[in-house]
C-alpha cells in the first residue's frame, strides 16, 4: 500500500513537473511561442509579430509588434494560487494607416496610446484602470469589482471620433461625430433569499455630437444619393437601486427617434415606449443592409424580460394602417403577428428603389414563427390594383397595357413546408393555383393550375402577333433547380398536350381544328381539316419544328378556288384530302414549311413556304396539278389577304394543242372525202 501511494505521488509530481516544463519554463515558452504566433497570424486583421513571450509561475511578459507602427505589451505579476494580479497592458499605434486594408479605406497616419492596469484579487477586490487618447479622445475609466461584481464605475470620454473607432474595428465609417461619455455609478451586492442580486446608484450620459452620415461612402457602396443628414444622439441612464430609467433621443434634420422606459438590472424586466418619425430612410441604408428610402413612422411598447419580451406597435409604412406584435424568447425572435390594411405597393417599390410596375392596395394578416427551424406561417393576402405600362416597357421591353387586376393568396407553412392557394383575375388572364406545395428549405414549388386567357388580342405585347379568341388551359408546374410544366387545352377543337422541361417544349397535337386555328391567327379560313402532329421548340433559342399530318381536309370557297374553277372547270371545294403532310421549321416568329396533298386527279405541293407571323406576310410557290395539267400558284404579301397569282400557261398550252389537233383532224377529214370523190369520178 505504501509503495502504491508513493507511486501515485510520483506520477502527480511528474505531471506537475511536465506542466511546469511545458507551460511555465523557458523550454515550454519556446515551444508555445510559434504556436501562438501561428494563431496570431491566422486571426489578426493585420500582420503582427510575437517578439517576446515569457510565461512563468509568477510573471508574464508578452510583446507583440508590427515594425515601428504597432507595439503591444502585457507585463506584470500574478499568483496562480491566491489569484492576486498586478498586470499592465500598454498599446501604442504610431501609424493608423496600417489598418487601412482592414477598414476598406485609406486612413491617416494619426497615432494613439492606451494604458491599462489590473490590480487586486480575482475573487476579492479588483480594480481596472484605463486611459487613452484613442481616436483623438481624452479617455479615462476606472472600474472596481468585488467578487467580480461591479461596485464602482467611473468613466469620462470626450471628443472621441466615432469614424476612427469604426475604421479601427474594420467597419466602414458611414457616420462621423464626436462621442462623449460621463458615468459615475456605485454598486452593491445584496442577498435576496438564496439569490444574490445587484443594485446600483448613479447616472450615465452618452452623447454623440456633430453627427453626419457620409454621403460619398454610401453612394460608392450602395449607388444611391442621400441627402445631407446631420444628427445628435443622446442616451441617458439613471440607476436607482435595481431600476434603470433610460431615455434615448436621435434628433436630426430628417426626423426623430425616441425611447423612454425603465428596466430591472437583475432580471432585465423592461417597460419601454418608442417612437420613430423619419422623413427619409436613405441615410440608414448601411444599417439596414439594402437600399431604402422614403418616410417611415412607427411607435409602440416593449415589455418583458430576457426570457420573454413583447414588442407591440403600429406603423403607417407605405401609407398603410399596420399593427404588429413581436415576441422574443431569450432575446431571439420567436413569433411575429401582423395586420396590414391599404398598403400602397407602389410606395413599397419606391422605398426599395424598384420600378413601380404596379399601383395597388394590399391587405394582409398573419403570423410567422419558427425562425430557426425553417419558418412556419399562416398568411392571407389580397391585392387590388393596376399595372403600369412605362416601367414594364422600360425594364422588360413589353408594351403591356395598363391592366386592372385583383389577387388573393392563402399560405400555410410548417417549418418551411406547406400549401398555397392563389387566384389572379384580370382582363388579360385568370389564373388559379390550387393546393400548391411549397418547400422553402429546398426552394421547391409544385402546383396544379388553371389559366383562362379571355381575349388573346390583348396579349399581342407578349405573343408578338395579333390573335383572337379565348384559351382555357390547365396543367402542373414544378419549380426547383429547373422549371417543369405541363399544359393541356381543348380550346382549338382538339387536344393539345405539352410539356416544358427548362427551355425544351414538346407538344402533342391531336385532331386540332384547323379552322379554329386560322380564326385564332386571324387568317382567311380557306381550308378545313383536322391536324395531328408533334411540336418541338427551344425557348432559349426561339427555334423548333412541327411535324404534322392533316385529315378530312377540304378547300372552302375563296379567290383561289374561284379562279381555278373558272379556268379549269374543276371545283376544288369538292375534293376531300387525307394524309396531308405539313412540316415546318420555326425560327423566332418565322416558319418555313413543306406542304404535300393529293385527292384523286388533283394534287398540290410546295417547298419553302415562308410565313412571318410578326409581320403577317407570306411567300409561297405552290405546284398544283389537275390530271396532267399543271398550274402554278403564287401567294405573296399580307397573310390575311394575300396576293394570288395563278399561272395557267401550261394548262392553256395543252388546251390550245388539243383544239388545234381537233381542228386539223376536221380539215383532214374533208380533204380526204374530196379526194375519194374525185377518184370515184375517174371510174364512172
TrEMBL record:
Q: What is this protein called?
A: Putative outer membrane protein
Amino acid at each position: 500500500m505504501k509503495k502504491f501511494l508513493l507511486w501515485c505521488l510520483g506520477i502527480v509530481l511528474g505531471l506537475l513537473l511536465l506542466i511546469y516544463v511545458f507551460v511555465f519554463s523557458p523550454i515550454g515558452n519556446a515551444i508555445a511561442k510559434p504556436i501562438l504566433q501561428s494563431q496570431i497570424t491566422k486571426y489578426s486583421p493585420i500582420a503582427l509579430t510575437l517578439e517576446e513571450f515569457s510565461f512563468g509561475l509568477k510573471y508574464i511578459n508578452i510583446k507583440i509588434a508590427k515594425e515601428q507602427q504597432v507595439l503591444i505589451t502585457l507585463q506584470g505579476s500574478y499568483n496562480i494560487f491566491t489569484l492576486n494580479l498586478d498586470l499592465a497592458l500598454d498599446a501604442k499605434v504610431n501609424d493608423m494607416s496600417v489598418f487601412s486594408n482592414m477598414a476598406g479605406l485609406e486612413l491617416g497616419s494619426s497615432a494613439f496610446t492606451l494604458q491599462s492596469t489590473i490590480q487586486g484579487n480575482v475573487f476579492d477586490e479588483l480594480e481596472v484602470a484605463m486611459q487613452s487618447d484613442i481616436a483623438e479622445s481624452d479617455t479615462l475609466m476606472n472600474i472596481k469589482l468585488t467578487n467580480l461584481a461591479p461596485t464602482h464605475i467611473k468613466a469620462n470620454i470626450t471628443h472621441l471620433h466615432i469614424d476612427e473607432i469604426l475604421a479601427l474595428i474594420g467597419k466602414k465609417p458611414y457616420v462621423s461625430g464626436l462621442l462623449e461619455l460621463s458615468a459615475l455609478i456605485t454598486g452593491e451586492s445584496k442577498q435576496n433569499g438564496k439569490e444574490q442580486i445587484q443594485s446600483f446608484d448613479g447616472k450615465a450620459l452618452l452623447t454623440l455630437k456633430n453627427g453626419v452620415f457620409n454621403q460619398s461612402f454610401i453612394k460608392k457602396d450602395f449607388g444611391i444619393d442621400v441627402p445631407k443628414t446631420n444628427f445628435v444622439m443622446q442616451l441617458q441612464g439613471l440607476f436607482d437601486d435595481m431600476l434603470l430609467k433610460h431615455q434615448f433621443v436621435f434628433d436630426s434634420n430628417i426626423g426623430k427617434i425616441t425611447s423612454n422606459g425603465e428596466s430591472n438590472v437583475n432580471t432585465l424586466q423592461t417597460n419601454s415606449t418608442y417612437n420613430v418619425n423619419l422623413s427619409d430612410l436613405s441615410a440608414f441604408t448601411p444599417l439596414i443592409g439594402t437600399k431604402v428610402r422614403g418616410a417611415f413612422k412607427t411607435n409602440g411598447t416593449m415589455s418583458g424580460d430576457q426570457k420573454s419580451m413583447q414588442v407591440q406597435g403600429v406603423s403607417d409604412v407605405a401609407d398603410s394602417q399596420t399593427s404588429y406584435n413581436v415576441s422574443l424568447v431569450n432575446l431571439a425572435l420567436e413569433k411575429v403577428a401582423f395586420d396590414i390594411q391599404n398598403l400602397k405597393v407602389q410606395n413599397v417599390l419606391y422605398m426599395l428603389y424598384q420600378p413601380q410596375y404596379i399601383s395597388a392596395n394590399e391587405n394582409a394578416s398573419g403570423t410567422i414563427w419558427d425562425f430557426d427551424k425553417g419558418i412556419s406561417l399562416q398568411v392571407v393576402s389580397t391585392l387590388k390594383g393596376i399595372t403600369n405600362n412605362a416601367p414594364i416597357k422600360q425594364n422588360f421591353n413589353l408594351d403591356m397595357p395598363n391592366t386592372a387586376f385583383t389577387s388573393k393568396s392563402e399560405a400555410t407553412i410548417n417549418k418551411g413546408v406547406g400549401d398555397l392557394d392563389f387566384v389572379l383575375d384580370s382582363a388579360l388572364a385568370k389564373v388559379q393555383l390550387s393546393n400548391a406545395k411549397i418547400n422553402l428549405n429546398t426552394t421547391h414549388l409544385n402546383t396544379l393550375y388553371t389559366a383562362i386567357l379571355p381575349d388573346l388580342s390583348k396579349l399581342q405585347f407578349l405573343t408578338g402577333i395579333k390573335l383572337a379568341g379565348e384559351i382555357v388551359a390547365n396543367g402542373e408546374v414544378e419549380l426547383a433547380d429547373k422549371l417543369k410544366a405541363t399544359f393541356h387545352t381543348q380550346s382549338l377543337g382538339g387536344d393539345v398536350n405539352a410539356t416544358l422541361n427548362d427551355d425544351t417544349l414538346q407538344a402533342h397535337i391531336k385532331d386540332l381544328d384547323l379552322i379554329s386555328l386560322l380564326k385564332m391567327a386571324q387568317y382567311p379560313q380557306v381550308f378545313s381539316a383536322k391536324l395531328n402532329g408533334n411540336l418541338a421548340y427551344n425557348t432559349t433559342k426561339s427555334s423548333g419544328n412541327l411535324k404534322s399530318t392533316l385529315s378530312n381536309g377540304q378547300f372552302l370557297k375563296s379567290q383561289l378556288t374561284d379562279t381555278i374553277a373558272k379556268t379549269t372547270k374543276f371545283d376544288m371545294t369538292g375534293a376531300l384530302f387525307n394524309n396531308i403532310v405539313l412540316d415546318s421549321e420555326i425560327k423566332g416568329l418565322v416558319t418555313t414549311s413543306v406542304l404535300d396533298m393529293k385527292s384523286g386527279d388533283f394534287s398540290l405541293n410546295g417547298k419553302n413556304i415562308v410565313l412571318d407571323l410578326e409581320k403577317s406576310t407570306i411567300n409561297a410557290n405552290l405546284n398544283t396539278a389537275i390530271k396532267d395539267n399543271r398550274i402554278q400558284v403564287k401567294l405573296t404579301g399580307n397573310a390575311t389577304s394575300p396576293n394570288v397569282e395563278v399561272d395557267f400557261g401550261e394548262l392553256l398550252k395543252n388546251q390550245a394543242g388539243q383544239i388545234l389537233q381537233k381542228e386539223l383532224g376536221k380539215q383532214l377529214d374533208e380533204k380526204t372525202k374530196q379526194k375519194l370523190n374525185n377518184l370515184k369520178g375517174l371510174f364512172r
